[in-house]
Amino acid sequence: MLLLNEALTNEIRAHGARDYPNETCGALLGLDGPAGDTGGSPRREVRALFPLTNRRDDSPRNRFSVTADDVRAAERAAAVGGLELVGWYHSHPDHPARPSEYDREHAWPWYSYVIVSVAAGEPRDMTSWLLADDRSQFHSEEIASLPGATARHSQ
Amino acid sequence: MAIKLEIPTALRPFAGKQSSLDLEAATVGEALKSLTNTYSDLRKHLYTDDGRIRSFVNIYVNDEDIRYLEKENTPIKDGDTISIVPSIAGGR
Ligand SMILES: [Zn+2]
User: Fold this and answer.
1) Which residues have a Cβ under 8 Å from the Cβ of B80 and sit 6 or more positions away?
2) In CATH, what class is B2-86?
3) Distance (Å) from the C-alpha of residue A152 to the closest C-alpha of chain B?
4) For an interface test with A, which of B44, B68, B83, B92 has the most A Cβ atoms less than 10 Å from its Cβ?
5) In chain B, positions 26-45, which contact chain A (CB-CB < 8 Å)?
6) Which end of chain A has fewer surrounding CB within 10 Å, N or C?
7) Beta-carbon contacts of residue A52 (< 8 Å; ≥ 6 apart)
8) Residue A33's pLDDT is what?
9) DSSP code of residue A136
10) What pTM does this model have?
11) What is the sign of the dihedral through the CA atoms of A8, A11, A16 and A19?
12) Quick check: A97 and A127 in contact, CB under 8 A?
């Protein structure tokens, strides 16, 4: 389960809209909790975002890339705030918020992969995914609003 | 050569939850082989089915990318640190 408050949810959606028609990307910084009553998958809380620049200049509308240097910068930013780099977000311009085959082939285990669909410039569905340990598929990860924050996802 | 191998967070669940390991190896390739022999579940995340290091897996020897050294044949010496650093890619 991925806990994401309304402000951060809106920030991801706004970043997706701002970068449309290109894919947006960024890091999720937060706290990784132990697997508890969530059926074995970890309970994670996102506390901050680290928005990044999509490095795929050649194909930014259907691909994104985050360099190793960007990854290390995100890890340092997390450490400064006493957080961990727990995952990534990216947008699917004019495409459903489901991971593509390309996403699966390039995914790391353990990280949460948040996808926001942006249709004609408007952010729509947001989903989160975890790569199966055998890399064969993504498992859906439930996104939950933090207590006290109001969920206002579009549909 | 006694070296230290740093494991990224995303792979620690497959490496006994360790953030780094002390290994004996003469090349980067040997160090990685030693790692994946001990923790075989790591292999599919580091290598493609035909045995090449995946494109989004970056290996550094003391902050130098092995792509600019001798790749997996890069020799290592006592006290070196090998780091596995992710890069992230995806699309729609
Ligand atoms: Zn994608």
Assistant:
1) B1, B3, B4, B61, B62
2) alpha beta
3) 24
4) B92
5) 41, 44-45
6) C
7) A25, A26, A27, A66, A70, A74
8) 85
9) S
10) 0.93
11) negative
12) yes
Query: CA–CA separation, B1 vs A89, rounded Å?
Result: 40
For chain A, list the domains and their CATH numbers: 2-146 (3.40.140.10)
Taking the CA atoms of chain B, what radius of gyration do you get in angstroms? 13
**Domain spans of chain B, in order of start:** 2-86
Question: Tokens 């360790």 correspond to what residue?
Answer: B18
Tell me which residues of chain A have a C-beta less than 8 Å from any C-beta of chain B: 23, 25, 56, 59, 62-68, 70-72, 84-85, 88, 90, 92-93, 95, 99-100, 102-103, 106-111, 113, 133-135
Q: Which residues of chain A have pLDDT under 70?
A: 35-41, 147-155
Find, in chain B, the residue whose alpha carbon is nearest to that of A130: B10
From the first residue on, what is the mean pLDDT of each consecutive set of 10 residues in chain B (92 residues)? Answer: 96 97 97 98 97 97 97 97 98 94
Rounded-to-integer distance, Cα B29 and Cα B79, Å: 17
pLDDT at A147: 58
Q: Write the ipTM.
A: 0.95
Q: What is the DSSP letter of A89?
A: E
